[in-house]
Every structure is written in structure tokens, then in C-alpha cells.
Amino acid sequence: MARERWFFAGGSQRRGPVPFDQLVDSILGQPDPRSALVWRKGFAEWTRAEDVPEVEGRIAPVLTKKAAAEAARRAPVVASVELPLPSATIEEAKPGSPGLVYGGIAAGIAVMGLLAWLFWPRPAPPAPPVPVPLGGATAAGAPAVVIPPTSVPTPAAGPPAASMPMTTPPASAPASLADRETELPRAELRKLRGVAAWAGETLRITAYNGTAWRVTEIFVRVGRLESDEFAEDPRPLRLVPPGGQLEAGVADLLTRVAPDRKKPGLNPADTGHFEAQAGPPPESFRWEIESARGYAPR
Q: Which is more confidently placed, 241 or 164?
């Protein structure tokens, strides 16, 4: 373990190689350590920290301790106050006396108020914005730099988009999906993120679907390094799941005989591959998501 060299996605680019202890310290400094993507030699692809046993085993106790400390910090402090007794002799309270009844009512109200304050649900803090770094060649043998979803301006009017959940629910299809494939809205498009790498003449993206949609196609704009400058491709590249690319004649036949068929896709809160033929691998490249298609939840 001491001689292993690790890589992780930090800030706007890939970081590494670093020793294991430094890797743990670095991802603990990120807003959501368990969602940080890590890689070392022997991994087939970038992996979430919580899915790597040795990394999760190191960060879990620290996160648990931080959560306990935060809960203790937010707990109310109830100070006891001694009230002076009146100088006059107080008659001993008897069952059914007004003083005993009113005192019990006041104590009950105080306890109910304290319990309501402790257990009243509080709104979750908004998720931090996801940066959009550039991709690049990897001389050390790691996949290309992490590329989160494309930066899409938020419309001035309308309600704010829902924040992406920080925990990963079970990977399962929605209970009900729309029958027709359509383009993802911009608010959902920002929840797609992934890692890009070249394999031969194929560009492959390992994508995490943080949307509520079942994503079937991703369109990306690729820039390739030429003479110290990036030249953008004239048209976006269409990437689909492996096996999802069909010949035109086969696709047309399936459309006519099975118009309601569902295309292969990536379910919400799941991770999977999208790929397309993109030519020889460049010395370095960058990319960003322009659009995507899929089935909306109903």
C-alpha cells in the first residue's frame, strides 16, 4: 500500500500521483469525500471513493466523527436557573392544589417546546456548484481528467433546480418512464458528469447519471490539441451505451416493427459507459457536454 501511487479528481483537473495517506487527506478536504473519483494502477476506470474498500475504510471514521461533532455543536444548551423562594412561608403543595396543577402544565409545555425544536425538520444545505475542468493526455497511464457536466447558464426566471443528492441510492430504473425519447432540460443536463478516455479510435465516457431521467444518448463537443492550441470539432459527437449503435437499416426496421421499444440507457443514480468512434487519439483534448436525450420520469 505504501508504494502505490494514486490519482484523484481535485478542483478543475486530475491530481496525482500521490501516496495513499495524502490521497485520503486530499479527498477529505472536498465537499463530498465519498463521491470523489479515485484511480490507481489496476483499476479499469475511475471509481467513487466510497466504492473502494481501502479508501472508504479510512474516510468513514473521520466523516462519522465530524458528523457527531456537528450534531453536538448544534444541540441546544439548557441552563438550570434557581429561582429565589419567597420570604413568606409556602404552604406545602397538596394533590389537586392550583399551584401543583399550573406547575405541571407549564413543565409539560416547556418539554414539548424543547422536543419540537430538536426534531423539527430543517432544510438541507444546497449542493456546491460543480466545476468544469478540461481533459488531457495521461502520461502516467491513468484515464483522462475528470470532466463534470457542461456549464449551462441558469434561467433568470422560474424556480431553482433541485440540488443533486450526495448519496447514491440503489441503481434501479424509475417506476414509470415516458414512452418517447426526448431531449433533457438544461436543469437536468447539469447533473451529468463523468471521466473521458481514449481507447484506440474510440472515445469512452464513464458517466454518473445524477438526473431523474434514463439517459440514452450524450452529445459532447471535443477540442483536440493542435500546435499548442485546442481546435474544436465542427459538430458535437454522439455517444451511446456499448451495443446501442445500430446500422441505419436495422434501426429503421426496429422503429417500424417496435415503435414503443426502449433504447439502451443509463438509469438514474447509476454509473455506466457511453462511447463513439472519434478518430486517432490526440496528444491532449478537452470536452464538454452540450446536450443529452433520454426518457423522462412520469
A: 241
Flag whether 51 is in a domain: yes
Q: In this predicted model, what pLDDT tens digit does every residue of 39-59 receive, in sequence order?
A: 999 998 999 999 999 999 999
pLDDT at 204: 94
> Distance between the two ends of the chain, CA-based, in angstroms?
47
Which grid cell is 57?
A: 475504510
Query: In the predicted model, what is the mean pLDDT of residues 83-109?
Result: 60
Taking residues 1-16, report their average pLDDT: 76
In the prediction, which pLDDT does 77 show?
54
Residue 137 grid cell: 493526455
Query: Which grid cell is 125?
Result: 444545505
Written as one string, the DSSP assignment of 16-79 is EEE-HHHHHHHHHTSSSGGG-EEEETT-SS-EEGGGSHHHHHHHHHHHHHHHHHHHHHHSPP--
Question: What CATH number did the domain enclosing 37 receive?
Answer: 3.30.1490
Judgement on whether residues 179 and 285 belong to the same structural domain of the protein? yes
Burial class (CB in 10 A: 0-12, 13-18, 19+), 189: buried
Burial 136-172 (b: 16+ CB within 10 A, else e): bebeeebbbbbbbbbebeeeeeeeebeebeeebeeee
